[in-house]
Design goal:
UPF0145 protein BH1111; UPF0145_dom_sf; 35% helix; 42% strand; alpha+beta; 4-stranded mixed sheet; UPF0145_YbjQ-like; Translation Initiation Factor IF3; 4 strands
């Protein structure tokens, strides 16, 4: 499955717009990681624990979006947008949204 932030796929023609698809991931962060991330923030460092959690959330959300597109018979998802939010109690949310399309390779 091709997923792209652009509105076209190079070398292909969009033959049908199947619909809007999305995937979500809501993940908890634990107390130790929150504490260590707070220390990193105070001293100006990067929080690898949170970066890893964000990457994991992004992968899950994109995979879910692609799975939903495949269920609709799509070949690709174009115009993909990612949104990250911090929810209460240390919960992280990632949402991937795009348009599922059918493609034909250009001659």
């Amino acid at each position: 499955m091709i997923s792209t932030t652009t509105h076209s796929v190079e070398g292909h023609e969009i033959t049908d717009y199947v619909g809007i698809v999305n995937g979500e991931a809501i993940m908890g962060a634990n107390v130790v990681r929150d504490f260590l991330a707070g220390i990193s923030d105070v001293i100006g460092g990067r929080s690898a624990a949170y970066e890893d959690k964000l990457a994991e959330g992004r992968q899950i959300a994109v995979r879910e979006m692609e799975d939903r597109a495949a269920q609709l018979g799509a070949d690709a998802v174009v115009g993909v947008m990612l949104d990250f939010e911090t929810l209460r109690d240390g919960m992280l949310m990632c949402v991937a949204t795009g348009t599922a399309v059918k493609l034909r390779r250009r001659s």
